[in-house]
């Protein structure tokens, strides 16, 4: 339950990404700068935190041991995740982006066969490929049903171009984020703390952000002061606070696929907070009964998922014991 609560708290800070990215887009800011500035601002904060905790040396040792893996999965978990999110902000409101993002709940479950878990048996420790947890899929479908209702209520007048431009990139991001995060969890296997892992992934993704920023400079010039300020807030709230909270929560249950799926499901709370943020700060319309029912369905699905994650189905009970 601790990991679930931390995940819910992270979703509050994550929601600012959707609100402020949309705000920057409405003010004419380039998505190239919106994406790259966030990670540029994250670096000094993370370096200071990890340095104060005495973890820089250990981090660089781990990164030198597997540089290719760090580079690949940092690209997937950060670049392929965040670049499409900021790009999609130009095609639709924050609630639509946040709602589509919730496909990451199911994505996390469907990605399970790409990973292995350590099992202690009478013959010793063996690696076993994880299975798709169908019994954990139905609470996620409840959450997605609520997301669908929210989008159905608010999608009046949205064109097919907007839907494609905002949905397809976000679906790609929804798979990339848990894939990159879990692959890095598997690689470090608890040998680095959350701050070290986020800093390492940020540093390894910097070459891509410099390329994107350079292209943005050639195409659109330097960003406006207001965009820089909003990107700084996104970096602090979503890039530092939310990411660290979420990675910490997933690290707590990294060897428990069912609970890991439940923690990833807490991101659905970002839909609620993004919608409220648009109502307050961007003058969005208040949802109708269908929209409100959708929000309640999302919250209800999150509650069901959190309680369901504490139960182990009889089909999974055996004499084997998973290593924690």
TrEMBL record:
<dbReference type="Pfam" id="PF13536">
    <property type="entry name" value="EmrE"/>
</dbReference>
<feature type="transmembrane region" description="Helical">
    <location>
        <begin position="288"/>
        <end position="307"/>
    </location>
</feature>
<keyword id="KW-0472">Membrane</keyword>
<protein>
    <submittedName>
        <fullName>Multidrug resistance efflux transporter family protein</fullName>
    </submittedName>
</protein>
<feature type="transmembrane region" description="Helical">
    <location>
        <begin position="158"/>
        <end position="177"/>
    </location>
</feature>
<feature type="transmembrane region" description="Helical">
    <location>
        <begin position="31"/>
        <end position="50"/>
    </location>
</feature>
<feature type="transmembrane region" description="Helical">
    <location>
        <begin position="95"/>
        <end position="116"/>
    </location>
</feature>
<feature type="transmembrane region" description="Helical">
    <location>
        <begin position="261"/>
        <end position="282"/>
    </location>
</feature>
<feature type="transmembrane region" description="Helical">
    <location>
        <begin position="70"/>
        <end position="89"/>
    </location>
</feature>
<feature type="transmembrane region" description="Helical">
    <location>
        <begin position="229"/>
        <end position="249"/>
    </location>
</feature>
<feature type="transmembrane region" description="Helical">
    <location>
        <begin position="198"/>
        <end position="217"/>
    </location>
</feature>
<keyword id="KW-0812">Transmembrane</keyword>
<keyword id="KW-1133">Transmembrane helix</keyword>
<dbReference type="InterPro" id="IPR032713">
    <property type="entry name" value="EmrE"/>
</dbReference>
<feature type="transmembrane region" description="Helical">
    <location>
        <begin position="132"/>
        <end position="152"/>
    </location>
</feature>
